[in-house]
Amino acid sequence: KLHLVDAKTGKVDGAWELSDNLMEVHLRHLEPQRKLILTVDPGLRAVNEATLAAEYISRLETRDLQPTVGFASRGNLLPTRLAEGLPVIALNVDKVDVE
Predict the structure, then answer these.
(1) Confidence class of residue 76 from pLDDT cuts 50, 70 and 90?
(2) Residue ranges of E strands in 1-99
(3) pTM higher than 0.90 for the full model?
(4) Under the phi-then-psi rule, with left for phi > 0, alpha for psi from -120 to 50, and beta for the rest, what region is 9?
(5) CA 1, CA 41: separation in Å to the nearest integer?
(6) What average pLDDT score do residues 4-14 get?
(7) CA quadruple 49, 55, 60, 62: dihedral, nearest 10
(8) In DSSP terms, which residues pair with 39 in a beta bridge?
């Protein structure tokens, strides 16, 4: 079994996803800058039938999300009248000045 816990809160929400090649597992949508502890129990069997002899423990940290700004649409022409303005998507940014 695989166990993933947050070093501070203990709980991590989500479900493991096994890749098509059966060699990788993924846990998507983890929060940024989170310290995690991954534990793999002994006895886990690999695709080649090898068995993990001893418990494996690893400390991980998710990356920080860098500030990003972008336009919500992909068009390259602007309408002559913008009723609601131009949609902008911002991540970790307080204000955006579009001129």
Answers:
(1) low
(2) 2-6, 17-18, 25-26, 35-40, 56-61, 68-71, 88-91
(3) no
(4) alpha
(5) 5
(6) 91
(7) 50
(8) 3, 57
